[in-house]
Amino acid sequence: MPFIDKYFIKDNTTYAALGITAYVFDDTKTAQFVSECLVPFREAYIKEEKLVEIVNEFGTTRKQEIEERLPKTADVKAGDFGEILTYYLAREVWHPDVNVCPMKWQLKDKKDAASPYTDVLVFKSDPNGANPNDTMFSFEAKVRATVPSGHYPNKKGYKAGKEQCVFIDAVIDADKDRVSRAAESINYLLTRCKDLGLKVEYKQIYRYAEPFNTVTYQKLFTAVAIIDSAFTSKQLAKLPNDLFATYPNIRVFFVPIAGLQALYENVLAQLPNA
After folding, report:
1. How much is the mean pLDDT over the chain?
2. Is the pLDDT of residue 239 over 70?
3. Cβ neighbours of residue 220 under 8 Å, at least 6 residues apart?
4. Residue 269 CB neighbour total at 10 angstroms
5. How distant, in Å, are the alpha carbons of 10, 51, 159, 206 from that of 258?
6. Of 29, 114, 127, 202, which cross-links 193 as Cys (Cβ 3.0–4.6 Å)?
7. What is the CA radius of gyration of the chain?
8. Which 3 state secondary structure label does DSSP give 68?
9. What is the pLDDT of residues 198-214, one digit of tens each?
10. Residues 58, 62, 63, 68, CA torsion sign
11. Nearest-angstrom CA–CA distance, 163 and 172
12. 112: CB partners within 8 A, 6+ apart
């Protein structure tokens, strides 16, 4: 059941000149969002059916099993929140026609490590077989509850000499997905599906494994900058004029959220009871 669209207001005019589409969080609905997102966010870590099965088989509690799967370190908490939020925006707002939506956080073997490779991959697949209109959607989500200060340390290439900026980080990493990392992500997902015996998911994702596919498919790469709205002007001031021209194949979404850190900490704290 879609839940997330009513909490974000699309703004395709304010930042249009910059090439950015914003999805502004409605902070008048924060409490409702936290309450309604708990089950979907918990499902990203462990499905209800699997949770019930484990509790019944091992005599543990729901809370214990959920807590065992949640990150404890601050960076991973923020990263997981941003990725899972991006996942639901992708499948319910940006591309509601996707029908293959792997939850990478269920496949992690270390809860306090970031999910490897591309942050979010979802797919639109023809159920009747491989079709050239099938599409892979790749998302790189960067979360910043504060504004980094100073320049990138010891960097070469595009970042050299530039001030740290969430848009730079998101766009450059999205371009890495475009060049190679999305393909590496698919291979990773296939391996994890085999390790965990996920035969249905394996077959769905295998269609996108190169060089094994015999029918081409489309690809769309997106950078998602999720920041505390209090720092919008400061982040935009760090945005280089040539960023999007340098990386023209990347779509850019901006998700400003008031009180971002308090929000994701609140969600993670309540997840064990979901």
Report:
1. 93
2. yes
3. 135, 136, 137, 138, 251
4. 12
5. 16, 33, 28, 39
6. 202
7. 19
8. coil
9. 999 999 999 999 766 67
10. positive
11. 14
12. 71, 72, 73, 76
Instruction: Give the integer Cα–Cα distance in Å for 16 and 273.
Output: 41
Q: Which tokens hold the place of 3?
A: 């839940």
β-pair type (8-11, 21-25): antiparallel
DSSP structure class, residue 6:
G
At residue 64, what is the residue type? Q
Strand partners, 219: 136
Give the residues across from 252 on adjacent strands: 223
* Residue among 87, 79, 169 at smallest CA distance from 120: 87
pLDDT in tens, 113-168: 888 899 999 999 999 989 999 999 999 999 999 877 789 987 789 999 999 999 99
Calpha distance 226→57 (Å, rounded):
39
Per the listing, tokens 């908490």 go with 77
Cα-flanking dihedrals φ and ψ of residue 263, to 5°?
Answer: -65, -50
- CA atoms of 159 and 166, how far apart (whole Å): 12
